[in-house]
């Protein structure tokens, strides 16, 4: 008997921990299909798309398929989305490197990223025939989004200091 494929909307997707876990669950057969994501963090999403959609290999073809052939078209496309460079507020992309902006545009297309969850249209559920909505936990202490609190890194340094080694496992000289 063929099992039903469960269509997933992955919100607050970050670099795709949920996506990775879902792939591992379905290791003997495809059970889950990530149909769309929703996350506005630019760098996390570029990483997500590199990990799960082979961004570096595919970005140029994806942009060409959507007729995003020059910087002006890419800027216009990106202006429709609230993208963040610090996970706290919307960022301006003026003056950013063209390759970076190409990767951002390709990320939105490849991951079917809805970007800003506060502006997400509920019709995505019906349109993509979503069966399951997931969300990832808040950013960990090591992430850029947690800058200023850095509890995770401080705890890691403290643990390593007690072990008399640094973050790379090298012995700390007194």
UniProtKB/TrEMBL annotation:
<dbReference type="InterPro" id="IPR001525">
    <property type="entry name" value="C5_MeTfrase"/>
</dbReference>
<keyword id="KW-0489">Methyltransferase</keyword>
<dbReference type="InterPro" id="IPR018117">
    <property type="entry name" value="C5_DNA_meth_AS"/>
</dbReference>
<protein>
    <submittedName>
        <fullName>C-5 cytosine-specific DNA methylase</fullName>
    </submittedName>
</protein>
<dbReference type="GO" id="GO:0032259">
    <property type="term" value="P:methylation"/>
</dbReference>
<dbReference type="GO" id="GO:0009307">
    <property type="term" value="P:DNA restriction-modification system"/>
</dbReference>
<dbReference type="InterPro" id="IPR029063">
    <property type="entry name" value="SAM-dependent_MTases_sf"/>
</dbReference>
<dbReference type="GO" id="GO:0008168">
    <property type="term" value="F:methyltransferase activity"/>
</dbReference>
<dbReference type="Pfam" id="PF00145">
    <property type="entry name" value="DNA_methylase"/>
</dbReference>
<keyword id="KW-0808">Transferase</keyword>
<keyword id="KW-0680">Restriction system</keyword>
<keyword id="KW-0949">S-adenosyl-L-methionine</keyword>
